[in-house]
Amino acid sequence: MKQIHLLLSTSLLLLASCGTNKEQSNGTASTADTINKIDTVANTQMTARMSMKPVIKAGDSLELRFTVYNPSVKPQSFCKWHTPFEPPMSKYLDIKDDKGAEARYQGAMAKRIMPPPADSYIEVKPGDSLSVKVNISKTYLLDKPGTYIVSYNAQEISGLAVKDSLTFIYKK
Known about the structure:
The structure is a single chain. By secondary structure, this protein is α+β, with helices and mostly antiparallel strands. The chain has helices at residues 2-18, 31-42, 155-158; strands spanning 47-51, 55-57, 63-69, 76-79, 93-97, 104-105, 121-124, 129-135, 140-141, 146-152, 166-171. It has a 4-stranded mixed β-sheet with strand order 2-11-10-5, with no helix packed on it. It starts with a helix and ends with a strand. Residues 1-42 have low confidence and may be disordered.
């Protein structure tokens, strides 16, 4: 049995190495190369970006815009749990002042069943994006003026890659 497995593995390696030419004789990309490029684009992870006004005065809305992008050639879904796409149910943002003090979260904390049910997902069409605005002052207590850094902390739950944090100045 081990010999058959070894023979099959070797045969597959030999066949795979036969199709590694980057270009055919007429100068066009091979079918395998084209499929690999499509698969690479199709498997691109959905990303999200946050934005706010750079300076916000006390009493003004602390409006955060959260935009999800699908750079893929196929529709993709993300879990709306722990994102602004659902009512405040969790602490999905870390908000700290320039001294490292964290703004207190004062919203709801929901316990969830795992895995998330199908209706917890939002589909985004290929090459498209979805945006939502949320007033973070309803769930986070910012009572001192200063410079604040906002970062997203629920990438594992939503499946969204959010690489950049944002900074804003809160003035009295």
